[in-house]
Amino acid sequence: MAKEVAWWKHAVIYQIYPLSFKDSNGDGIGDIQGIREKLDYLKNLGVDVIWLSPIYLSPMDDNGYDISNYQEINPMFGTKEDLKHLLDEVHEKGMKLIMDLVINHTSDEHPWFIQAKSSKDNPYRDYYIWKDEPNLITSVFGGPAWTKDQTTNQYYFHLFSSRQPDLNWRNPKLRSDIYQMINDWLDFGIDGFRLDVIDLIGKDIDHYQLSDGPYFETYLQELHQNCFQNRKIMTVGETPGLSINRAAEISHQGLLDMVFQFTHIGLDEVPNQGKWALKALDLVEFKHVFMTLQKTMFNHGWNSLFLANHDQPRAVSRYGNLKYRKESATMLATILYGMQGTPFVYQGEEIGMTGVQYDIQQYQDIETKKIYQILKQKGISEDEIMRSIHAKSRDNSRTPFQWNHQPHAGFSSAKPWLDVNPNYIEVNAENDLLDDFSVYSFFKKLFEIRKAYQVFTDGDFDLIQPNHPKLFIYQRKNVNDTMLVIGSFSSEPQEVNLFISEEPKSLLISNYPDHAIKDLMILPPYYAAIIRIGEINHANH
Ligand code: GLC
Ligand code: CA
Known about the structure:
The protein is α/β, with parallel strands linked by helices. The chain has 3 domains: 10-106 and 171-447, Alpha-Beta Barrel (TIM Barrel), CATH 3.20.20; 111-157, Oligo-1,6-glucosidase, Domain 2 (Oligo-1,6-glucosidase, domain 2, Alpha-Beta Complex); 459-533, Immunoglobulin-like, CATH 2.60.40. The protein is 28% helix and 16% strand. The chain has 15 helices and 20 strands. Strand 7 and strand 8 (154-157) form a beta hairpin. It is globular. The two termini are 31 Å apart. 45% of the residues are buried. Bound molecules: alpha-D-glucopyranose and calcium ion. Calcium ion binds next to loops.
C-alpha cells in the first residue's frame, strides 16, 4: 500500500514580507488588505502555502521580529478581522497560511518585560535572563548581548537588538504561556508556523552554548506535545546554527517538519568573520554542501529549499549575473527546485528582483545601520563598508515589490517606507505576466513539472561532474524516472559531454528552449535545463 506522503512535502511555499508586498491604503506600508488583492497572482504561480513574516503588535525596531503583543495585529497591517478574511480566502482558494513565530525573544515593550524590569521580585522577572555581571557574548547585530537596566541595576540578555530581550525558556511558567498562545493561533485556523531562530531556545549562556544548546530537544519535544502533534499543520524552524546532521535528526524525529539549514548560505563569507567579510563563492564547495544536505536527508529527515529570504540578499544578485538577469534567475530556480525538499520562494524572486546599491541614508534596517557605525569606528574605509552593505544588507530583499511600471512600482500610491529599486520600469510583475518566457512563467512551469513527476519528491540525488568549477549538474532517479538537472554558473559558453546519447531523452524545461539537446553541448551563459532520460516510448516498440 502506498504510504501517505505528508502534504507539505509537495507544497510550494511563498514568503511574504508584509511591509513590502502591497499597500492598499496609501500610507506607503504594505498591509493585509494588500495581500488579499494578490492571492490570485500567487495561486496562478502554483503557490500552496503562504508564510507571513510577523504582523503582530510591535514597535518595529526589527520590523516586527520584536513582538509586544502576540495576540494582537499591528494596526499598520490591519486588524484581526482582516487576517480572518485573508485566512478564509486563502482556504477557499485551496491554499494554506502559516505565520512567523518569534519566541526566542520579545520586544522590550511587551508587558512581560515591562513587569520584569520593574523590580527584582516581580513575578515576571524570571521570564527574562538577568545577571549582575555580563559575560562576553555579543549580539548578532553587533556589540554586547547585555544591556544594563537602570532601575534594578542588573543586565538583561539580548542576542539581537537591546530592544529584543531574550525569553528565559528555563522557566516552565513562560513555556506554558507560550504554548497557550500558540494553541490560540492554531485554534484561530492557521496552518502552521515558521519558528524564528528556534535553535536558540535551549541555550546555556554560562557555557556559551547558544544554538542547539543542552535543553533544545527537551523544549522542542514539549512544544511538539503541547501544540503541534495531532494537528494537520506544518512547521519549519529557522535554525542558523544547526549542523546538517542535527537538522536531519530534528526533522526525522518530526519535532519540526523541516528546518532552514544555513551551511550553503555562509559560503560567500570569510569563515568565522561574520556575514560582512566577503569572499567569492566557490561553486565546487557550494555543490558539495548541497550534495551533503541531499544525501544526509534522503530517507532521513526533510529539506527546505531556499536561497533567499528577508534576511538574505537577492539570489540573482548574489549567485547570478545581472547582465544575464533572466537567465541566471531561472537557472538558480532550476538548480534549487530540482532537488528533494519543500520549495520556498521569497517574494519577488519569481520575477527576478535584484538587490540595490543605496546611499547609507536610504537604508532602514537596524542591522545595516548598526554595522555601518561599528565598521566606521573600527576605521574601515567608507568604500569597503559600502561594498559589504551593498552585497549583504537585508534591505536588498526588503525593497517594495515591483508590481508594474507606475510610480512607486505600483506597490503604493505614496512614497514607500523603503525606496523602490529603480529598475522597476523593466523588472515588474506586469511585464512578467504578459511574457511566456519571463522569470515568472518559468517558475510556474517549473512547479508544474515538479508536481507532475514523483521523482522530484522521492528520487535520490547524485552530482554529475562534481568538481566542474562552472557547471552544477545532478541527477534525480527513482524506479520510474531519471532526471538530469543542469545549470551553468558562467557568463562564458561551457562545453559539456552528457553521455546520454544511447537513451531517448526529452527536454522538460530550459531557459534556452531552442537549444537542441545533444550528447556534446556548448551551454550558453547561465543555461538551465531539466532533461528526462531513460524514458521508454512504448508506441515505437
Ligand atoms: C531571524 C529573523 C530576522 C530577525 C532575527 C531576530 O533571524 O529572520 O529577521 O532579525 O531572527 O528575530
Ligand atoms: Ca498600508
